[in-house]
User: Fold this.
Amino acid sequence: MKLLCKHETCLLLFLVLVQIFGLEDDSSRTTTEICSTHTILPGPKGDEGQKGDSGDMGKQGKVGPMGPKGDKGAVGSSGDQGMMGKIGPIGRKGDKGLKGFSGASGGKGKAGAVCDCGKYRKVVGQLDINVARLKSSIKFVKNVLAGIRETDEKYYYIVQEEKNYREALTHCRIRDGILAMPKDEASNAVIADYISKSGLFRVFIGLSDTEREGQFIYADHTPLQDYSNWKEGEPQNVTGEEDCVEMLSTGKWNDTECHLTMYFVCEFPKKRK
Ligand SMILES: *[C@@H]1O[C@H](CO)[C@@H](O)[C@H](O)[C@H]1NC(C)=O
Ligand SMILES: *[C@@H]1O[C@H](CO)[C@@H](O)[C@H](O)[C@H]1NC(C)=O
Ligand SMILES: [Ca+2]
Ligand SMILES: [Ca+2]
Assistant:
């Protein structure tokens, strides 16, 4: 009993009893009562026991509290150089500087190469000729449109360019015409009116006695027929060089020198022969 009550088994037994009978307070008291009432008086103290073996190593202790802040350390060594930074924004435009001194004049240039321009010059020359011809043609057409006279058979046109007789002949011919040949009163009147209305005094007509003095022949090589309209006293062969004929604004004819220059009248047939 003594062993029973002092030992854990005794307590365990009482706990079992408590569980069985559901008496907490009573059972604890009962246990005490049981153990006290059944206690036997202790014996004399025993001899000191042998020294026990050293126990196992204890468990690792808990982490201690944080220690106090340490003293400030010495300045560290300088670090490596950092990478180059990004390019900054473009700055504002600076003020205009003062004008610099003018530099020394450059050296003389090298002599140019000789150009083989012969053929080009020839082409350009031909172009000039063509342009001149074209201009002449345009002027002719313009003047034709400005004023022209006609009969049933022919057109008459006064070219207002001063030419000598030969040039006048050519001028009419290259335009498929001929220096005007008044062969009757009607055509002579048309030309005369044309001259006076144009405000002119005289023009060459296609009549001359170049081949044989006194034998006047038209530009188409036909001789004077039954019509002529000489001014009184003409042809008079004054200088011996009056082989070409001009018509005055009155319609009268006068033999005159062929080298003189004046306007002239061309005629163009309406029907091609
Ligand atoms: C015209 O003059 C030339 C040169 O003086 C002369 O030879 C010719 O006989 C003259 N003709 C007439 C018809 O007078
Ligand atoms: C006729 O021709 C001659 C010679 O060119 C000239 O001297 C004379 O003035 C002319 N006559 C008229 C009326 O123009
Ligand atoms: Ca003559
Ligand atoms: Ca004359």
Remarks:
- The radius of gyration is 75 Å.
- The domain at 148-269 is CATH 3.10.100.10 (Mannose-Binding Protein A; Chain A).
